[in-house]
Design brief:
Blueprint lengths: L1 E8 L16 E10 L9 E23 L16 E25 L2 E15 L1 E12 L2
Length: 140
């Protein structure tokens, strides 16, 4: 059993919405892990399960088809005015999250390499995400 924290960064967030906040790449979490097996610090691969909560944002781009209103005035900024367009829409979720997952750790001397897969529920702007985590842990 172990309690700890993670600090990380995210890459490739979405653009800032008009009047909205910019993408926050910071990832902070408090976590608890439970190692399955007799000894968490044994050599070789050790499976574990985790639960976590913290701060993170996930932005997802989705291509959407927009049907233009044929009765509307043409857009003067657009050279051609097609009946339909494909636009990039962004779904921005998070700032807070709760997560659960499972993974493997392997001893590398006094440190551990970890590989973990988990699901996140993001709030107050709700959404779900799947996350893969590759880490390096040093006990203090």
């Amino acid at each position: 059993e172990r309690i700890g924290q993670h600090l990380g960064t995210a890459v490739r967030g979405g653009p800032q919405s008009h009047g909205g906040r910019p993408f926050r790449p910071l990832h902070l979490e408090a976590r608890a892990a439970y190692w399955l097996g007799a000894h968490a610090y044994a050599s070789g691969f050790q499976p574990f399960v985790t639960a976590a909560t913290g701060m993170a944002q996930v932005d997802v781009q989705v291509n959407v088809r927009v049907n233009e209103d044929p009765g509307a005035a043409p857009n003067p900024l657009q050279l051609d005015n097609p009946a339909t367009q494909r636009l990039a829409a962004w779904h921005k979720t998070g700032i807070g999250f709760a997560a659960a997952g499972a993974g493997l750790q392997h001893a590398l001397g006094p440190a551990r390499a970890t590989l973990e897969a988990r699901g996140l529920w993001l709030f107050p702007s709700t959404g779900w995400a799947v996350q893969a985590v590759l880490g390096y842990a040093i006990g203090l």
